[in-house]
């Protein structure tokens, strides 16, 4: 964007204006694209994506454009997260202008990086005392904050914007930023101070492409540098040639250059005249985040973050991508039998979120006809009931549970009555019938006029009490209940490395590759039946190849059935194994033991969310 002559600043639109308008607009817009997952957040405008992966979760840090904005009127930053690239959890506002007492405006494009268990959020803001833009740094011991001002003053300030941090393999960290120039400085180990002076990266046409007709900006580089290293190549992906911007990139043999311009990642598209890149690998795929004006009321100052999945070309080059409304495919499924935050959303129509008195955020500002879609919910053989944590300062309403579409099959209706306050929480439970398989779940809200109720979280109960699965305590939320060691070692319930909910199962002290967590399924199997098995595994260290196995003993003979293809797992994140297998035996079945083993070695590993259906 052109920093020299900003358009006039707009006033803040009252928050509730959007609440009235947005549902109407979204209802029209989203009658059409049933498969749309982009933009990734619909209940607020988001901009300037900065993805980060931590503990197997992808966190997405964004700015927030105010409703009805006529300038980059931005006062807070937001964070969302996902484990499946389809359903995104809103973690609220972990940092805002108020975090920085020395700043008074322009909560613009930032970047978060983790070092030694601390999360550093570098952001450009306007410094109150000078009126010039400077880079501040927030710090937190959690990826979702809250973040505090690490310094009480700018880290660096030269009137330029869009910081991005990068830690090289040798541990040296760099901060890049700039518009109209491109700067870097070497950060110290503490990530909140630096050595040497800010240095300009020469903006040569060989390095950053040629811009014509603008003598003061001879190259394509505009703003938003996103620097990372992959297979020995350093990449700088950036917003190019305002306005409208496209996304271009350069590569270099080192973190400070020399850079070579490589071309276009995303052409100029859509109704936002800025764009902003964020690139990351997650769960074996590469993702490109950007922003556009695709939501109703969207445009250059009311932007929304979107994402595409891509593969690097064999030579390491980045393919050119277009904006889509479909977005990336979902990875895995969502488990309805563990508590899910109501603000875990694939698509929202009409709702907003707000801080909850029970911690985190809740869904609120719900009116008649609003709805939330949750993508790919694995009901298995069936749910019997649904419980939601609700509060209502009015007379409440109903939560309709529908499958496949907002007018799809109704599998349950939960009544919500007034609780005497919007943060007076209680549970409501209703029967569910017909929720089977893996389906998109719609929570559709009905009632009278005005705001109806708030929801903090929800969960289903399975018909069989086991999540529709043969496995007892497959989500590990009941500790080690139901599980025993096959072979040797120790099982423990772990609360620090979890795939969902608050616990996983950890197997340590294995002495044989076949040792693993196990369950006796003898009385539960049907001869000749095909079962679908799903599980999530993560090593404590090492990269073992993991497989779930069924040992069937019938007529004195034991046979071994592999339930899913093997998968190599690692310590950096969770890997899902899923597959189908037909179980059969001759004669009388005397023992059926399900266990998770490795192809070789004795690495310790975590297990979570195991289902056999
Ligand atoms: O969001 C405000 C500014 O717009 C960012 O700092 C730039 O990268 C552009 O996206």
TrEMBL record:
Statement: the UniProt record of this protein carries the keyword Zinc-finger: no
PROSITE patterns documented for this protein: CBM6
Similarity comment text for this entry: Belongs to the glycosyl hydrolase 43 family.
InterPro entries: CBM6, Cellulose-bd_IV, CenC_carb-bd, Galactose-bd-like_sf, Glyco_hydro_43, Glyco_hydro_beta-prop_sf, Glycosyl_Hydrlase_43_Enz
Chain ranges passing through the membrane: none
Domain of life according to the entry: Bacteria
Start and end residues of each CBM6 domain: 338-461
Keyword rRNA processing: no
Signal peptide feature range: 1-36
Protein name: CBM6 domain-containing protein
UniProt keywords, alphabetically: Carbohydrate metabolism, Glycosidase, Hydrolase, Polysaccharide degradation, Signal, Xylan degradation
